[in-house]
Structures are given as C-alpha cells and as structure tokens.
Amino acid sequence: MKRFVLTFLTLIILAHVSHAQIDPQKTGGAPLVDPHTNCQLRYYYFPNIEAYFDTQKRIYYFKQDGQWVTAEEIPDGYRGYSIYNKVNVFINDYDDEDPCQFIEIHRKKYPYINNDRALKLMLSKQ
Predict the structure, then answer these.
(1) Which helix (H) or strand (E) is 6 found in, with range?
(2) Which of 61, 93, 98, 123 gives 20 to 30 Å between its CA and that of 69?
C-alpha cells in the first residue's frame, strides 16, 4: 500500500512539474497582447545594456563593434551585463521584426538608472 501511495504521489509531482514547463508559444497558445496598443508583447528591452530579447525567436539583439548582431546569449562581460542585473521592460508598441530601429526612442523612454544614480537623484531632490 505504501508503495502504491508513493508511486501515485511521484506521478502527480512529475505531471505537475512537466505541465509547469509548457511554453504557450510552442504549444499554439495565444501570445500576450497589450490591450491599449494591440501589439504582441514580443520584445524585452534591457536599458542597462541597450539590447533587446525576442521572445518568439529566443534571440538577443545587441551592438558589437557598432553593428547590431543577434545571438542566443549575451556574451560574458558585455557592457557589465550580469544575470543578477536584468533590468528589463516589455516593448508594448512594436511587434514586427526590427526593434533596433527604435533604440533612440527606447533609450529616452526607459533610461537605465543604477542604484548609485537613483540614490544621487533622491538626495538631490531633498
């Protein structure tokens, strides 16, 4: 009886874990859409490294030697990038193929403020 209960619990846990890892993009689920702009929430913008991540293609767009390149991962040490410093925002007004053309707009709209800069701004307002 104990063996049956243990096997049953193991199957339930495995079913739950495997279900939690299903990607709606791969299974035909509807992508997230911004209700105000009616655009898919397809791209993340990382203000700290001025790069984009395409959630459909699962690639990053970033500048290297002055040219936009794509890769599955950001190179180690790229502009001080760290997985622990992943400041990002969803781009809610564009869902086509070339987000890089809007870098100037996104740079102004979503400026990167690190902790030191935020602290200085708070102190200067007091």
Answers:
(1) helix 2-20
(2) 93
Which H/E stretch holds residue 5?
A: helix 2-20
**pLDDT tens-digit series, residues 34-77:** 888 989 999 999 998 999 999 999 999 999 999 999 999 988 88
79 alpha carbon, distance to own chain's centre: 17
- CA–CA dist 50, 63 (Å, integer): 8
Summarised one tens digit per residue, pLDDT across range 22-46 is: 343 443 557 788 888 989 999 999 9
Q: Which long-range contacts (CB under 8 A, 24 or more apart) does 112-117 make?
A: 112/47, 112/48, 112/87, 114/48
Q: Assign 95 to helix, strand or coil.
A: coil
